Predict the 3D structure of the following.
Amino acid sequence: MDKALEQFLAVTEMGSFVAAAERLLVSQPALTYAMKKLEQTVGAKLFERSSRGVRLTRFGETLYKNAALMRRLYDNALETIERQQAEIDHGISIGTGYSSWTLFLKDFVLDHFRQHPNAPINVSIGDAMRCMDQLWAGDISLFVGHQIANLAREVDIDFIPLCYARDGYFTRPGHPLLDAPRRMSEVFSWPTAMAFPPEARLKRLLVDASFGGPQPSREGLSFTSNSMRACMDIIRNTDTILIHSALLADAFIAEGLGQVRMLEGEMVPQWLLGIYVLPERRSDPNVAKFIELIRTTVEQTGPPIVAE
């Protein structure tokens, strides 16, 4: 990738010439000169300087968006070449939450594995923010998870909606909440648990780390774990309430848990579930095939498909 564009991206993302120069291991005067030359080349002012650092002009915003795409295309091209050299056919790396894996991805992956036993498949199970971090880093090709609000400007990712999912509340047999429909306030008067809670370090992917839209929060939770099995052990042996997608109700009931019924009219949180994929990867025949297979599988398992 062009050196001047790499320097431009560094200045933009670091917010100052000093920080960018340190990261690039060049002198600040040399970096400043390079950016002036770049402005001359494009014929427009790219930065506005102040005592607090630099910010992009509208011309700079246009160059940044396209330069970031060029960088990702270049990086992805190198990765694609590496995969081709390794003669990887039909392989893919998918990120997913526990609900999506249990509902439809598990059977889908098993069928694909039977058809292509020598194709490498990697499945990363975690919350949506962790999967987003892996997707942006190129560790996975796509992931199925809930829609994330307020993604940072540079996180240019396509979202393909699949279906809606509501929160469900599950607990041990015989729990006092199971004997009648309840209000949200009654549910949250008990200790609560969540599997795969979001990691604080991943808030850097959001425009405003203090407001992440409909991302689950650790606040007020009595127990969290990156293991659903650990959460189930806590739920079975305490009065704690598990907060998880209601789409998984049948699976939890089969595991011996009870679902708390909610009073009609209670505002239970609802999430849009879908597929995240890098825009330039959608044209990859292998990725496109997986996306279509996932959509078909969701249609066959019951949740109504949402138009893209």
